[in-house]
Design brief:
Radius of gyration: 19 Å
Number of helices: 6
Strand content: 5-15%
Strand order of the largest sheet: 2-1-3
Number of strands: 3
Structural class: mainly alpha
Shape: globular
Largest sheet: 3 strands, antiparallel
Order of helices and strands: HHEEEHHHH
Length: about 140
Amino acid sequence: MIRASLENYADPSFEVSPYYWVPNDEVVARLGIIGWKFNWLMGWKDVTSATNERTMIAGVVPRTGVGNNLPLMFPDQKLGPSLLVCLLACISSLVLDFVARQKIGGNHVNFFYVEQFPILRPAAFSSADIAFIVLRVR
């Protein structure tokens, strides 16, 4: 491991480089096994705390290697991007966050918690609901 010198810190064009890398070929191979076609991944922050404003923090990240503190979900791709956006909206809702805060006893949002959270089924969304949600989820 190479440590940055004081001269490096003084140089505004200095860029750090990560110590650990996940090769892109490995990411492509692993996602190919499950048939993931999108250029993004959906996951949630595993580590939480009672002092955080939100318990369940979910989002979309570029298609890249991630560590164990960002568990990934791979919903059915046949749903299409609009319903996947609705899924993200459900996971990021205040209602789900309230339930998560009641259920989670420690600092980790493990899969067995997420499987118990109140998430609407795709059939619950009308076309008007989808249009409303998609415009607002960023």
